[in-house]
Amino acid sequence: MSRHTLKYSALFAFAAAAPFATPAIAAVTINGGGAASQEFDYAAPDVNGTPVSEMSLYNSAQSQVSFGTYWATISGAAQAAMLTDDLTCLENKVTGANGGNCSGTLIGGANTVHYGVSESVFNSTQIATWATSSVGQTAAGNLIQIPAMGTGLAIVVNDTNVTNNNQLGFSDNDLCGIFSGLITDFSQITDSPTAPAAGQFKLVYRSDTAGNTFSLTNHLAAVCTTGNTNAGVTFTVTSSFSSLFPGGVVTSKIPNAVAVSGLANLANTMAGLLSGPFPQAISYISPDWTSVDSATSSAKLSNGLPSPLTVAALYNGSTLFLPTTTNIAAALKHPLLGSNLTPPTNATQGANPALWIPIIQTASTGYPIVSYSILELPQCYASVTVRKGMIHFLKDHYTKTSYRTIQANNGLVSVADSGASKFLATINKNILANANNWDTNIGNATACAGKVGR
User: Fold this and answer.
1) Fewer CB in a 10 Å sphere around the end CB: N or C, the chain?
2) Contacts of 376 (CB under 8 A, 6+ apart)
3) Residue 450 falls inside a structural domain
């Protein structure tokens, strides 16, 4: 994790604590974190005393509960922290303590994990782990994962012929070739409005278990075939890019591949501030780390400046789309291929965390690589104050204009403006309340009876 991300985590911790310097009653802290791609929506520090992130905005209005440090790292660390109730899975990944691995010995207390943020859905193995774990179902009730925001995945390019976001265009065939090693030279891109300068490029990929990789492979798994993919590579949905290649070695198929760990490190690498410069390169990243959203996003490079990264438009049919919030929202509303596109309809379905996150692999219009970021929660909390605080925050997150504005500023689409809007009523009735008597809501008295909670 970069110094930049650690700096923002520390700044947010200070900003979060400031409003409660002299409280009548000490505020209870809500612990968690996760995907760095959501960091500046959830946890950017105040600007001139004005909250510019959701958690800071929430904290400034509360007196009994507050969000502490948002440990901005990777989706895999958020999932590990939630499954083991070990906050060090997040802390150590950021600070480097214990080699960046979970400590595994400090369960409970100040190390309790109250929430996680991810762009990767829990898989069947992880859900089964929760069901049998002493810190999962036994202690904290149902595992809850719900859509938080809609997002896209930007394909960023360094090339001397490409200076604006609307110049370079990639088709699905291009993407399958680029990310499998079938295409390694810009001269092989023949369907772009602007021809990139010929020459071999470096493919910069995430070496960690990243939600951005999950979003990329979720799309590639649907559109790539043996005809447009390098022999020996088959795209499956995964958070680990290297797992797609023989022996886990990306360079076995992409000789010019470069591994980078961490979202901020990748942005800084592509900008020539780390491990570079790479004048000919392609990578994938969240839109708020690009020039598409640089005017409003709180994301900054290690030099303190907005990201200048140039984004390739992607073909959907014969039309090119950039990953703007408008184009992301259009795709989220018009899924062509995916799963879980409608919310659960009964208590049995509602108790299954796999059914709460819409998965979109392709869309009939708009920007073609889209997904939903995820809030991960336990059903049962040990503290009534934390339980009420989480429910209050979720209601604000989904409904308040000020929160939705922060989301849009960081290139994210509110659930209400996406195809998952149909999930909102079900979330309100069955996660934030128990209107249908499913007993799947946060803090349900029946489901949480006898459980210690988080």
Assistant:
1) N
2) 34, 78, 79, 82, 115, 116, 117, 118, 122, 143, 144, 145
3) no
